[in-house]
Amino acid sequence: MRVVTIVGARPQFIKAAPLSAELRRRHEEYLVHTGQHYDDNMSDVFFRELNIPPPDRHLGVGSGSHAAQTAAMLEGIEKVLLEVKPDAVIIYGDTNSTVAGALAAAKLHIPVAHVEAGLRSFDRRMPEEINRVVADHLSAWLFVPSQVSVRQLAAEGITEGVHDVGDIMADSVRLFAPLARERSDVLKRLGVEPGGYFVATVHRAANTDDAERLAGILEGLSNAPRPVVLPLHPRTRAAIRRHGLEQYLPSPDCGRGAGGEGFRDADKNLLIIEPLGYLDILQLQQNAAAILTDSGGIQKEAYYLGIPCITLRDETEWIETVEAGWNRLVGADAERIAAAAKESSAVIDRPHPVLYGDGHAAERIAAILADLCGSWPPNLTCDVQ
Ligand code: UD1
Fold this sequence. Notes:
This protein is α/β, with parallel strands linked by helices. Helix content is 44%, strand content 15%.
């Protein structure tokens, strides 16, 4: 079976690493990078560290409005699909690269396999929610991380082709967390001690486009009871400047972290650094006192690593982590953020049930796709009227 895999944004490289390896054992894979993320520390570092084969095609799409970015991807992906003629197209998650891959393939009647299907935040103001809904409804096979997603898809009339394989990011953590322990010296470089700091990430449009929310988050992080390491997403760095919040950025003459990386401002608790590679961010997470984030993937990583998570949003797609008591939703309110950080250590005595499978999703997906080869061509008719 020949598959085309579409990736483009940082979390997709992390998800593709375990599945690409499995796919290449059983199938022929052609890897397309849309170019949505293009900085070395947002893209190439992941290919190097996680041993992902270099893309067979790089579309070089880059930044733009949602329409411009998605349109450029659609055009590029369609050309590749017409040339390569795959039996299936694999897409991951909820980014503009995901929805472009789904649309281009579905219109050419090529079956789409969506990895991390069935997630919902029930907030259509999020571009990611629009991308997931469209991608799910165009997919022939939906690989979901849990029964919650199976039920959600059923509620939307999708029951065919749904496979609960567990979460592919559990595979990534299982494979790479030990490697991170071995290879990453990030704690030393930043001058932080195990358990003595928090790690935070912020990049969602809802938090970066709204000056008040972004200020609330930065203020809350600055008032946390321990230093907060904040690897800053380029979108967030630009938003801080745009909204006139530079007081949270380190002044050029303030002290640097022990290894010369990042900045420490005497009167602020924030250690702002450039985005990190996967091994460094995993190592930083597995040694943190707690993690504060608006990322979907990091909420799960925190859970797999047994670290309390504080989510800087009002809702989450990973509701099971909240129900288990390991994840707390605090929105963008400075006081709630600082208070949750203070209380976070209370969580670690709680039971820690297995939520999203056993970290072997990649093998299952590759095997299911191999079985499906026998029933070629797949049924592309639809139950949903
Ligand atoms: C995208 C995804 C989001 C995912 C996130 C992970 C969508 C709608 N959103 O958000 O689901 O969680 O990736 O990071 O697809 N930029 C750079 N260098 C880069 C990449 C981006 O400077 O390498 C800047 C650009 O100015 C760009 C901005 O960051 O305009 C935002 O990038 P974009 O691709 O629109 O989405 P993300 O915020 O990264």
